[in-house]
Each structure stands twice: as C-alpha cells, then as structure tokens.
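Supplementary notes for students who missed Thursday's class. We covered one full example, reproduced here. Read the sequence, then the structure, then the short commentary at the end.
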Amino acid sequence: MSKISRPKYPYHVPIYSTVDAARYLNIPVSTLRTWIKGRSYPTKTGHKDFRPLIQRPDPDYSQLSFTNLIEAHVLRVIRTVHNIPLDKVRLALDYISEQFKTEHPLVLKKFSSDGVDLFIEQVEHLINASRSGQLAMKQVLNHLLNRIEWDEENIAARLFPFIEAYGEDSPEKIITIDPNISFGKPTISKTGVPTKIVTELYDAGDSLEEIASDYNCTILQIKTAILFESKLRVA
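Structure (token representation):
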C-alpha cells in the first residue's frame, strides 16, 4: 500500500507528545494511548490483540505527528457515537485505506466526501448499526471534518481545535494548529501568535486591552486564547 506522496516534513514529523495531543483535542490520555498502542481484548477463544488505530511515524518513538493529530481528531467519533468496538473501527479503516490507496485516509479531503459514507457503510456492515446511529455518526464526522483545512494537495494542513465555552464547543475557528507555524503549537488564527504567550502575559498582569493592542488582535481572540490555554492546564 502506498503512502501519501509528499515530503515527510512537516506533516509526518513527530512533534507532539501523547499528553499534549490529548490535551489539544480534549481526549483522555488513556484513550489516545489505546488508539496508538492497541490493546488486548477477550473473546470466546481467548485474548486477542487489535492493531493500533493510529500509526506513529516511528513505532519506537513516542511522539505523534500532525497527521496523527488529525487522525485522532477524526476518531473522536468513536467516543461521541457509542458502541463501536475498536476492532471494528480498525477493520473499517483498513477498508478505507485500501480504497484510497494510502495508510492515512483520514487526512485526505476526499475522506470528507466519499470517505465518510464508505466508512459508515463499513461500520454498519460490521456491527449492524441502526439508521439513527448511522445518521448520528455522519453528523459527528462532518462536524469534526469542518474543523480541518486542506492544502493545495487536498491533505489536512491545519486544525482548528474545539474550544469549550459556556458548556459547549465554540463554532468559531479562532485557534489554529498548523505544523508550519510556531512548531505546531496552538496559535491565534491568521496571526501566528502562540496562545501560550498571551496567556503568560495575562497571568503576569497585562490587561486584555494591552495584549490585544500589542499583537494587533481583538479582545475576543485574546480571551479565546486564554480560555483555550486554561483548559489545557486543567486537562
């Protein structure tokens, strides 16, 4: 099976720890580790192992790539839509990989069109999902894919992580994760200003207005950056 035909840098470079990736995506660290390492599960004939859902650039190296970050973001669907066994998800991913001729189908723009329906069809075939369950799965997948922006080669280039505000995820794309900007750390969209920097300035006593003026940002952008970083600290 062929790999995505583009240089390794920057999308496949291992730059994220599992802990950071889980925090950025608001996924439990234990869940992400299971997707990365696989796990053993009981069957009538004994324990079996399922292969990881996410293939790291180097299995002997713990860091994740931006490609892996996107894959984990999309795979949130198995947490949001319940009762999808991980081994069945692996089989569905294998099918999509074969259809798209790549080891990383979830990062292709094509997945947001043809791939979503193919994935759901495979899951339905494997677990006999109800029509309502299929609809919910499609809605969640489309919701997640809407947070991704693709490059000229139709490969995921940047991610706009969810920012939980007032008990729900904000639809605004104010924070960006782009491997070409600030070494892949979260920044304020279209500015390149790291969210960590403005939060440190605010904690040091600078006002929202001062920070916004210094970085030519809006108050909303600064507030959102601080909110995003505060969620990371307690994750």
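Commentary. The radius of gyration is 19 Å. The domain at 162-235 is CATH 1.10.10.10 (Arc Repressor Mutant, subunit A). If anything here is unclear, bring it to office hours.
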